[in-house]
């Protein structure tokens, strides 16, 4: 594992030199940038050779195996999380369907109540119209009675 660590350390230094080389180029120091870039490439080659060495290959395989196990664990966790989310989604969809059906029933009941209310309003209007007719007839009767009384009083006064 030591050779793997050394190879990765050399690769990190190579990357750092490459980054500094880019910075030097942007700061207007192209000669220094080229020098650092050249050294970075050489260190990159050395790090690859160290990693590919006989022990390095074994170490890389072991490191990749560990990484694969980690990725597998994460994938299993993600799959379990996805299954749980799917179950929650299905439960929410079923609840949504139930609420939609309940809404349809409530709308039908509401329409029936509106129709019944409309019928009650029509009946109330009919009763009110009949009441108006009765009041009118009553008023006519009262007026006729007053007239008859006035006539009777006038006859009684002239006879008397």
Write up this protein.
With 160 residues, this protein is an all-alpha fold. It has a domain at 1-52. It contains 3 helices and no strands. Helix 1 packs antiparallel against helix 2. The N and C termini lie far apart (147 Å). The mean pLDDT is 86.
Characterize the main sheet: none
Percentage of residues in strands: under 5%
Q: What sort of overall outline do the alpha carbons produce when their principal axes are compared?
A: rod-shaped
Ranges with pLDDT <50 over ≥5 residues?
none
Average pLDDT over all residues = 86
Helical residues, percent = over 70%
The number of E-state strands comes to 0
Distance between the termini: 147 Å
Order of helices and strands: HHH
User: For the CA atoms, what is the radius of gyration?
Assistant: 51 Å
The number of helices is 3
Structural category is mainly alpha
What's this model, at a glance?
By secondary structure, this protein is mainly alpha-helical. It is 96% helix and 0% strand.
Task: Identify the notable features of this structure and list them briefly.
160 residues, mainly alpha, rod-shaped
Secondary structure elements and pairings:
Elements: H1 2-26, H2 30-52, H3 54-159
Helix pairs in contact: 1-2
């Amino acid at each position: 594992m030591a050779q793997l660590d050394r190879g990765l350390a050399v690769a990190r230094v190579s990357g750092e030199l490459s980054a500094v080389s880019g910075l030097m180029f942007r700061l207007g120091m192209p000669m220094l940038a080229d020098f650092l870039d050249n050294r970075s490439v050489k260190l990159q080659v050395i790090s690859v050779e160290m990693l590919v060495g006989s022990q390095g290959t074994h170490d890389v395989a072991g490191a990749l195996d560990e990484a694969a196990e980690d990725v597998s664990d994460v994938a299993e966790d993600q799959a379990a999380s996805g299954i749980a989310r799917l179950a929650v989604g299905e439960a929410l969809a079923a609840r949504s369907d139930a609420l939609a059906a309940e809404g349809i029933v409530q709308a039908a009941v509401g329409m029936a109540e509106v129709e019944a209310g409309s019928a009650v309003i029509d009946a109330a209007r009919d009763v009110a119209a009949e009441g108006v007719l009765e009041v009118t007839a009553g008023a006519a009767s009262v007026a006729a009675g007053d007239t008859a009384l006035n006539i009777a009083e006038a006859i009684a006064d002239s006879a008397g």
